[in-house]
Amino acid sequence: MSSVKFLFTEENVGKRHGVYPDEEQDRTKPYSEKFWSKVETLPIERIREIQMERFRNIVQFAYARSPFYRRIWDNAGIKPEDIRGWDDIRHIPIVTKYDFGDDQKENPPYGTAFTSPPNTQLKYWQTSGTTAKPRLWTETKEDWENGIFLYSRGLYAHGIRPGWRGFFGFSYPPFIAFWLCHSACESMGCQIVPKGPLSTKAWLGLIKNLSTTGVDSFLAATPTFTMRHVEMAEELGINLKELNIKVLTMAGEPGACVPSTKKYLENAWAAKAHDQLGSVETSGPVMYSCAEQAEEENMSDHLNLDSFLVELVDPDTLKPVGDGEPGATVVTALTRFGMPTIRFLLGDWMTISYEKCRCGRTLPLAKGGIKARSDDLIIIKGTNIYPSLIENSVRSIEGLSPEYRIRVKRTNAIVMVEAKPGIKKTDYQKLSKILEEDIRDKTSVRLMIEVNPPGTLPREDVKTKRIIRE
Ligand SMILES: [Zn+2]
What we know:
This is Putative Phenylacetate-coenzyme A ligase. With 470 residues, the chain is α/β, with parallel strands linked by helices.
């Protein structure tokens, strides 16, 4: 019998299917001044034990109830009882978004991965469809509560405390995005002010109006939209520094972990920029930044390894990479039951480090955050180039606006940027040269640069597709 105290009562949530270690204690409130959960500080050996126990549990559960997983594992000749140790995990086939997509095409609309009738589950989502046709996902009350527990951890690590006000710069579409952040904030006791369909102009007016009440506040938005506020505020003559926003909690894209983007946003808002990154498939956030990392120029994110198994593989061969080497993530959500995610090729490109963080958390670090989604990786003349690396260059150069796109042609790429307003056309050539050299210094590859007049590149409000393949 677990001694863990949950947010939802058993009468409310029904019988839980997960394994809940006693160290989770009371999930509904902070464990200490600094940590939301004691789990964040457990010895890594204990976290490994929790991972293994949870992994075996989710595999057994999915095999018994999910036709999708049973089919794939039967084809591979794998049974749950074959998973005895860490080496056995690799025998379970890796699944991709295409496997889920094909399954849903053949068995519309939900496919066959669910473990209880999808119409009876608490949450309905679809993926944002930036790189593939939207896929449908559902999750149970138990899953949702587990997501809230993880999200609260991240928000608390960002410095957000009960009683703060959260400005939610998003339009509440049917993908998970900030919905989970919303629920976590509410359960922590923060007031939420949603943007919804308001125009950016009306939205900034609303934030300004409420800023006079003196409540500590934070903004939850994608890096693209956080950036969009800066441009709009300039146009409207609003000083973002006066809005009493202390923390920028960003999700959906790499942002706070790109040093020049972080610096740019922190200067504009007089706030600390933070990451909280997950996906629809993982439900809860896989990683989050802490206050100590936010002081670093090159920030890293803690990985929630008690709730996720994160493996790194070569995206072409799907073979594991060596310790300390970069790779694409294969993620198992250990506490998601409605539509389980087991050895899913999420494809975030990262390096895992076990170096100690000054904050005292033992959860390892994704070094420098997510570098790219593997779909966004560009290979030019045999060199891997991440969009975040180009972004870091573009945003570190005086005279260039933060907007950029990368047009990839077969053997080369053109970086399209904009000059800032007031820069003379005759100086574009000089800017182009500075950027070209900066990128060459960082990648040893020479890319073509195209400097455009201000406002040439389209502005997005949610996520920006940076790479255009031709
Ligand atoms: Zn830390």
